Amino acid sequence: MNIQTISTTPFKRQKPGTSGLRKKVSIFKQPHYLENFVQSIVDSLENFKGKTIVIGGDGRYYNQIAIQTILKMAAANGFGQALVGQKGRLSTPAVSAIIRKYHAFGGIILSASHNPGGPDGDFGIKYNISNGGPAPEKITEAIYASSQKINEYHIIETADVDLEQLGETVVGDMKVEIIDPVADYAALMEQLFDFESIKALFQSGFTMRFDAMHAITGPYATLILEEKLGAPQGTVMNGIPLIDFGGGHPDPNLVSAHDLVDIMFGDNAPQFGAASDGDGDRNMILGQRFFVTPSDSLAILAANATLIPAYKDGLAGIARSMPTSEAADHVADALDIDYYETPTGWKFFGHLLDAGKVTLCGEESFGTGSNHLREKDGLWAVLFWLNILAARQQSVETIVREHWAKFGRNFYSRHDYEGVNKEAAELLMENLYSTFSDLPGKQFGSRIVEYCDDFSYIDPVDHSISQNQGMRIGFQDGSRIIYRLSGTGTEGATLRVYLEYYEEDIAKHHLDAQDALADLIKLADEIAGIKKYTGYDKPSVIT
Ligand code: VG1
Ligand code: CO
To answer: What is the CATH number of domain 3-180?
Structure first.
């Protein structure tokens, strides 16, 4: 093996955020940038020599080029084998499933998830550990520390691998297997859900649209929904992955998934609609002219879990990220199971899942998943809903309304202020925090502040502490306002404001969330000075 040791110097700010390192493609293309980060990952690992690493990405621009470099570096650093998705493609949940199935040492995922792609778009890289989940903070911090003192990296000089051809090849002394990106994942889904009853549902004329948004889930959804479950051809839309996602934001929300939203809110809408994001870990669920909030979706999956073969014996517990609505907590209370509140980002669920403390996890940001792997999983959530629809033979809307009638409704919305000046956003957060000593007990209209803090989390398994995870203001009536700065953006700062209030009165459940939350929305600005600091008079995205 012709191993080269290349001298390099650190890049500032190679710091993994909520989900890996995300930067503009132009930044990743700088000489040594990717190599430095990959070597920093390797330098933070131990006992990996001769072991297997899984590599794949969401198919965006630069994916294949990055994979060639990573393969040559993995070989130079002594990995024994690499499993690589054909064409360099693997969805994030598929990487997690494959790491677990083949007992790999870890995996590298090339994705900036829902961020736009293409030469002017974003790129990203993240490392997953042997449980299949995102590296916990201890490791991401070690990677960052390595990146700030790196002075060389190792790479072999050899020809590129043909990523099109399934089968075995070598890079230096490392075995490389180009694998079918879909097969293992699809097999896992067949084990979890009642495919026969979903098949029967489609046979009875049930209609659905799945929007793959020209991102990674196209081939997964086409095989599973159309070929295995017999949904009519054309059920999957925008199913061909493109390196720039067709110029769109592959973000499954009401704004970006407009192709699907137009259909689901138009005349003759199908009975069920769903979409996934760039790397396949998010999901949006729609009924006919009806939007299911991700927080409600988590609660409804939990309440109906025993209808699903994989969860028929019930749930061990439920975990949700702190800003996610408390809807799932009400279900956990009713089921008499534990629930956990974690910081934002899937890396915080891994220990709870590994310890068997929870079965389902979810985030308000269109992320839901279970102990079947260690990432959130877009298509899994869609199949879970299909399985419920097949079992209950009711509309999406009826299922949601019956859920609210039984558990109450958590009115919920997230307001994002994107591309805000970074200093201004940080100042807003600092000043907000400085008001916290006076806030408790203060009355705003009919609401009295019960508590406020900068959320910190003690991992119940390894007792590690994660601080500065978002400003919370809780009111005596159970309402909450939460302020966080995003850890996935690549331009300026994004302020996220999460708003929630709980309504037991069924007569009010029909209200529009923005109307129901109107006074809380005003209050969020009054307390933090959102307009003043950001210069925005309204959010850029409302979900
Ligand atoms: C966002 C979401 C968070 C999610 C993360 C990664 O992070 O809010 O819930 O885990 O994206 O999802 P932030 O820091 O921007 O709020 V994905 O599908 O982009 O990997
Ligand atoms: Co994603």
So the answer is: 3.40.120.10
Q: Considering the domain delimited by 409-542, tell me its CATH architecture.
A: 2-Layer Sandwich (3.30)
Inter-residue contact 378 to 252 (CB < 8 Å):
yes
The confidence band for 489, taking pLDDT boundaries of 50, 70 and 90, is: confident
C-beta of 324 in contact with ligand 1 (< 6 A): no
Task: Give the DSSP per-residue string, 283-304.
Answer: -EEEETTEEE-HHHHHHHHHHT
Asked if residue 63 has its Cβ within 6 Å of ligand 1, the reply is no
pLDDT greater than 80 at residue 300: yes
Indicate if 26 belongs to the active site.
Answer: no
**Domain residue extents for the chain:** 3-180, 185-407, 409-542
Of the candidates 413, 447, 433, 434, the one whose C-alpha atom is nearest the C-alpha of residue 538 is: 413
For the chain, the maximum distance between any two Cα atoms, rounded to a whole number of angstroms, is 73
- The verdict on the CB of residue 194 being under 6 Å from ligand 1 is no
**Per-position DSSP letters for 469-521, written without gaps between them:** --EEEEETTS-EEEEEE-SS-SSSEEEEEEEEEEE--GGGTTS-HHHHTHHHH
Can you tell me which atom of ligand 1 is nearest the CA of 487? 14
Long-range pairs for 328-332: beta carbons < 8 A, 24 or more residues apart = 328/295, 328/298, 328/299, 328/302, 328/360, 328/362, 330/299, 330/407, 330/408, 330/410, 331/299, 331/302, 331/303, 331/407, 332/302
Q: How far is the CA of 486 from the centre of ligand 1 (A)?
A: 8
The active-site residue, picked from 91, 111, 113, 486, is: 113
Per-residue 3-state assignment (H helix, E strand, C coil) for 306-343:
HHCHHHCCCCCEEEEECCCCCHHHHHHHHHCCEEEEEC
Q: Tell me the fold of 185-407.
A: Alpha-D-Glucose-1,6-Bisphosphate; Chain A, domain 3 (3.40.120)
pTM value surpassing 0.90: yes
Strand 272-275 and strand 208-211: pairing? parallel
Atom of ligand 1 nearest to the CA of 277: 18
At 388 the pLDDT is 98
